[in-house]
Write a structure and sequence with these properties.
Blueprint: E1 6-12, H1 26-37, E2 45-47, E3 56-58, H2 65-73, E4 82-88, E5 94-101, E6 105-108, E7 111-114, E8 116-122, E9 126-127, E10 130-131, H3 132-147, E11 151-156, H4 157-164, E12 165-166, E13 172-173, E14 188-192, H5 193-196, H6 201-205, E15 210-213, E16 216-220, H7 231-241
Antiparallel strand pairs: 1-8, 1-11, 2-3, 2-4, 4-5, 5-8, 6-7, 9-10, 11-14, 12-13, 14-16, 15-16
Length: 266
């Protein structure tokens, strides 16, 4: 039986191209957070490609190394940046994917997509001497506070598939349309101020597991490994936040609420 994969997911409404994101320096912060949280993993990092000859080492001990790699690897022949860099470390504990696009908000097939994203896919029960859940929580908080994404979550792959993905007749992320809703309420969540403005923060902050930070709100709803048996907690949180902010696969065409993203280069 395959072990469930625990995801840390951050979605951005701005480009993570280092030359565009110089003020925020998001990719540099990702490098610093991972180096601090997983020293052993960081000892030997490779920008991974199926073709062995296309792989390249990334020295996390050198400031700016990841930003340089991302800038080069996502550069297209048309002069803009669009692509992803997958990082594998000295251990097999987790994999990191940094996705970049110079157009941060992109209408695709009638859905508004956010193409700039950072994911940490945790593959083992423990990482750097602590449980995978403890590691995920630490990395998630540090990345959200430091990088200020639009939205983020910690979830199992099974929770994401159940709430966001269509599996037949083809695999498709039907729950990703940021112009209409968030993909879902997950076990652990981060809402930037764009979303805090849409719900009553006092109502949400009254929930167990809710905390206000400078640019958003964290909300822990459940243990990610027990998400399937915590329906009452999810229902209580949705009642406070507002169901209309989230995708519902049982009623995909219902009225929803979302921020306005007017500038495709926001």
């Amino acid at each position: 039986m395959n072990r469930p994969v625990l995801f840390v997911r951050l979605v951005f409404s701005r480009s993570l191209n280092p030359s565009i994101d110089a003020e925020r320096a998001t990719v540099a912060i990702v490098q610093d957070v991972l180096l601090s949280a997983a020293t052993r993993w960081s000892e030997k990092i490779v920008a991974w490609e199926p073709n062995l000859k296309a792989r390249a080492a990334v020295d996390f001990d050198r400031a700016g190394a990841l930003a340089e790699m991302v800038a080069v690897r996502t550069r297209t022949t048309f002069g803009f940046n669009s692509g992803r860099v997958e990082l594998r470390g000295a251990t097999r504990e987790f994999v990191v994917v940094v996705s970049v696009n110079d157009r941060p908000t992109r209408p695709v097939g009638g859905h508004l997509q956010m193409a700039n994203e950072v994911t940490v896919q945790i593959l083992t029960p423990s990482v750097a001497g602590v449980s995978s859940l403890t590691f995920a929580g630490k990395v998630f908080e540090e990345l959200c506070v430091g990088c200020v994404p639009l939205w983020g979550a910690v979830h199992l792959d099974s929770e994401y598939r159940a709430k966001v993905m269509q599996t037949t007749p083809s695999l498709r992320a039907i729950g990703r349309d940021f112009g209409r809703f968030l993909p879902g309420l997950f076990a652990v969540n981060y809402f930037s101020d764009k979303y805090v403005e849409l719900f009553s923060s006092s109502e949400v902050l009254a929930l167990p597991g809710a905390r206000r930070v400078e640019h958003g709100v964290f909300l822990d709803v459940a243990d990610p490994f027990a998400w399937e048996v915590e329906s009452e907690r999810y229902s209580a949180a949705l009642a406070r936040i507002g169901k209309e902010l989230f995708f519902d696969r049982l009623a995909p065409d219902r009225a929803t609420v979302a921020p306005t993203f007017a500038d495709c280069r926001e």
